[in-house]
Write a structure and sequence with these properties.
This protein is an alpha+beta fold. It contains 19 helices and 42 strands. It has 6 domains: 2-38 and 161-189, Phenylalanyl-tRNA Synthetase, Chain B, domain 1 (2-Layer Sandwich); 44-138, OB fold (Dihydrolipoamide Acetyltransferase, E2P) (Beta Barrel), CATH 2.40.50; 202-401, Phenylalanyl-tRNA Synthetase, Chain B, domain 3 (3-Layer(bba) Sandwich), CATH 3.50.40.10; 411-479, 2-Layer Sandwich (Phenylalanyl-tRNA Synthetase, Chain B, domain 1), CATH 3.30.56.10; 495-692, BirA Bifunctional Protein, domain 2, CATH 3.30.930.10; 709-796, Alpha-Beta Plaits (2-Layer Sandwich). The model has no long low-confidence stretch (mean pLDDT 93).
């Protein structure tokens, strides 16, 4: 909803707050303001000019014009508009002016003729074609005759107005009108509201002698018609066109523009028919039949259904009730008699119809959200009087209507103590009463009890809590006292929250960037990296690729890798901490399990003049996992080939104290091809198990006082023996001084027996108190080698 600041000041005469102050005040009192804009922003040096001569340039469509802009000399401007004429007042962009798209006007030559400016159409000022009353090919815009030569054009076109864009929530549809906005501003600042009034003059002839109204549906509480004869269709005055364009509505003609003006002012949708096109003296409002069709104002033929409300004349639909009129009865230049409609339509029915036909109009949106049921007749009479002012004619006496509908005005009571208890305030009786009066409520006070009669424009208020809210927002949310909640314990993070932060710090220290993926994926991706599982699928998903709760996060990370690599970002290192959704045998709802997943692709180190590029490999990804799990007692990596989406020779299952916690490895080449990504390494870890297995405390060990000793051993062993088995055997040899085992060489090939490989290890011994003697070192190495020979059948080289 665009609110004109100029118009608003007319409705609230005492308003002195600036638009910026109003923006802040309204946003903090319950109606959010999206922003304030000025149509003239970015435009400059645009003045009113009068064309005093015009000569055609032979063999072209161009004209050489002399334009008086209030300066000593007239300007020579070359213009190609077809409607240029002597005596016309137009928009002149002087040399140095800025017009739409920040285009700067410069002195130049056109067909060899010097041109010192530009004569403009509205679209060249940035007026959108959706609200522009002129097409570009029709020529330049003609300024009002009373416009003074040399003046800025902005006041004449209301382009110096400030437009306040309101973000209206469904419960405050009363603000979808200038009157509603005025009442809101008046209540906020405690100012009286002065709404525009018009005196309707009727002739003696009754409208009922020419037309009758019948309603045969309970979806239309009331339907009213007025007849206006002898109208003359023409353009609306400039002020009315300005008001409509600033509200985002395209001016059409003086009759249609009045209905749109009243819509913006009252929030009451109206419709004007060409009465002579009815071919009947009765209007019937009913539900459509399945075999009916109508061609609406947008000249599209639409097939109707029984749930649609139609206005019919002579049995033929002439309008889609509350949504759009019919093309056969629209106002044209030949119209002389106007049938003016004002009605109430069921909001649910209107919404279904507008959605079905994709016809979202200003009228339908207001019927959907609700309108002021108390001003249906008032808006009709105002519009009829205004049409006579602008289009001439005479209003036939009386309103032809289905019934004289009047809404019931609810009365809501509340006590002062209830208000103060709810808000934590100590407001006086006078303060609360003043707020209710500012809101325009009828108030009766009995002791400390308020009984408020709610006006029809505030249909959102019906219970005691609504009155509390009104007091709070008008008094000012920022004025309400704030207190801390009473509690014995201060709030703190849960153990899982603390742990997630610790894990996040660890992976970011490894150079990974956090991403947030979708929890809803396709059924195939949901279980792609975890095998067959029962999943949870939405009954009515918004899209097919967002219908199943994920059981793994790797698929989402690979989509992000693909997105980056498709945009020439080849080196990707990302992680996500989130929940996966696993089946729950005891409940139909899935179990949410916190997980960590990461994906790395590309180079760890880029190529430089001194070094070659270093690509990501299995050991780099495994190293990140090892660093995360460095504080755990027993971490093992077990080779696995059971996951179809992972490389069978470069994937390991991760275990902590024998519990399966996740996996790390390379994405299978076939899977990588499906995702259209380069070689990628991933890992997935269950944070719940990691938290459960986290050592209770870190035990400090005294720093050794003596020097460490290293010895190397080389082993010839079977090709099927793994590094993990060797390390386990060495560590289980019960040599207390052994503190570190490192593999520094592995060889398999020529000069070795078939089915054998060579592995070399560095053993570090670190006694605590005394330096080890050669005999002690030899004994320790012999004990280790003996254990290796007995358990793994190795040969010491």
């Amino acid at each position: 909803m665009l609110v004109s600041y100029k118009w608003l000041k007319e409705l609230v005469p005492g308003l002195t707050a600036t638009s910026a102050e109003l923006e802040q005040k309204m946003s903090t009192s319950g109606i959010e303001v999206e922003g304030v804009t000025t149509p003239s922003e970015g435009l400059s040096k645009l003045v009113v000019g009068e064309i005093i001569s015009s000569e055609d340039i032979p063999d072209t469509h161009l004209h050489i014009t002399k334009v008086n802009v209030g300066a000593e000399d007239a300007l020579q401007i070359v213009c190609g508009a077809p409607n240029v004429r002597v005596g016309m007042k137009a928009i002149v962009a002087l040399v140095g002016a800025r017009i739409a798209d920040n285009y700067k006007i410069k002195k130049g030559k056109i067909r060899g003729v010097e041109s010192l400016g530009m004569l403009c159409a509205l679209d060249e000022l940035g007026i959108d074609e959706k609200i522009n009353p002129m097409k570009h090919e029709e020529g330049i815009f003609e300024m009002p005759a009373q416009a003074k030569v040399g003046d800025s054009i902005f006041p004449y076109l209301d382009m110096d107005d400030e437009l306040i864009e309101l973000s209206i929530t469904p419960n405050r549809a009363d603000a979808l009108s200038m009157h509603g906005a005025a009442w809101e501003v008046g209540a906020i600042y405690g100012l009286p509201v002065q709404l525009e009034e018009k005196t309707l003059v009727e002739v003696e002839q009754a409208a009922a002698t020419k037309i009758a109204v019948r309603v045969e549906t309970d979806k239309v509480p009331t339907y009213k018609i007025r007849l206006i004869e002898g109208v003359k269709i023409a353009k609306s005055p400039q002020w009315l066109q300005n008001r409509l364009m600033n509200a985002g509505v395209k001016p059409i003609n003086n009759v249609v523009d009045v209905t749109n003006y009243v819509l913006m002012a009252f929030g009451q949708p109206l419709h004007s028919f060409d009465f002579d096109q009815f071919g009947s003296d009765e209007i019937l409002v009913r539900q459509a039949t399945s075999d009916e069709k109508i061609t609406t104002l947008d000249h599209v033929e639409r097939e109707l259904a029984p749930e649609d409300i139609v206005i019919t004349a002579n049995g033929v639909p002439v309008a889609l009730g509350g949504v759009m009129g019919g093309a056969d009865s629209e106002i044209t230049d030949e119209t002389t008699t106007v049938a003016l409609e004002s009605a109430l339509f069921d909001g649910t029915s209107i919404r279904k119809t507008s959605q079905k036909f994709a016809l979202r109009s200003e009228a339908s949106s207001r019927f959907e959200k609700g309108i002021n049921q108390g001003t249906v007749r008032e808006a009709l009479d105002f519009a009829a009087a205004m049409i006579v002012e602008l289009a001439g004619g005479q209003v036939l006496s009386g309103v032809v209507e289905s019934n004289d509908y009047q809404p019931n005005l609810p009365k809501v009571s509340i006590t002062l103590s209830r208000v103060n208890a709810a808000l934590g305030t100590d407001l006086s009786l006078e303060t609360v009463e003043k707020i209710f009066v500012q809101l325009g409520f009828g108030v009766k006070v009995d002791g400390e009890k308020f009984t408020c009669e709610i006006p029809s424009r505030r249909w959102d208020i019906s219970i005691e809590a609504d009155l509390v809210e009104e007091v709070a927002r008008i008094y000012g949310y920022d004025n309400l006292p704030s207190t801390l909640p009473v509690s014995q314990n201060a709030g703190e993070l849960t153990e899982m929250q603390k742990f997630r932060r610790k894990v996040r710090t660890g992976v970011e220290a490894a150079g990974l960037n956090e991403v947030i993926g979708y929890s809803l994926v396709t059924p195939e991706k949901a279980t792609e990296f975890v095998g067959e599982l029962e999943t949870t699928t939405l009954m009515m998903p918004m899209t097919e690729d967002r219908q199943t709760l994920r059981a793994n996060m790797i698929s989402g990370l690979l989509d992000i890798v693909n997105y980056n690599q498709n945009r020439k970002n080849a080196d990707v290192a990302i992680y996500e901490i989130g929940n996966v959704f696993l089946p729950n045998v005891d409940d139909i709802r899935p179990t949410e399990v916190p997980n960590l997943a990461f994906a790395i692709s590309g180079n760890v180190e880029d190529k430089s003049y001194a070094n070659k590029a270093v690509a990501v490999d299995f050991y780099y990804a495994k190293g990140i996992v090892e660093n995360l799990l460095a504080t755990y007692d027993k971490v093992t990596f077990v080779p696995t080939a059971t996951q179809p989406a992972m490389h069978p020779g470069r994937t390991a299952r991760v275990e902590i104290n024998g519990r399966h916690v996740g996996f790390v490895g390379q994405v299978h080449p076939a899977t990588a091809k499906k995702y259209d990504i380069a070689e990628t390494y991933v890992a997935s870890l269950n944070l719940q198990i990691m938290l459960e297995e986290l050592p209770a405390q870190t035990i400090f060990k005294e720093i050794p006082k003596v020097q460490a000793v290293k010895r190397d051993i080389a082993l010839l062993l079977g090709a099927q023996v793994t590094h993990a088995e060797v390390v386990d055997t060495i560590e289980n040899s019960r040599v207390k001084s052994l503190v570190k085992v490192e593999l520094f060489d592995i060889y398999q090939g020529s000069n070795l027996p078939e089915g054998k490989k060579s592995m070399a290890y560095s053993l570090t011994f670190q006694p605590v108190e005394n330096t080890m003697t050669d005999e002690e070192i030899t004994a320790a190495v012999d004990k280790i080698t003996k254990n290796l020979v007995e358990k793994l059948a190795v040969e010491i080289r």
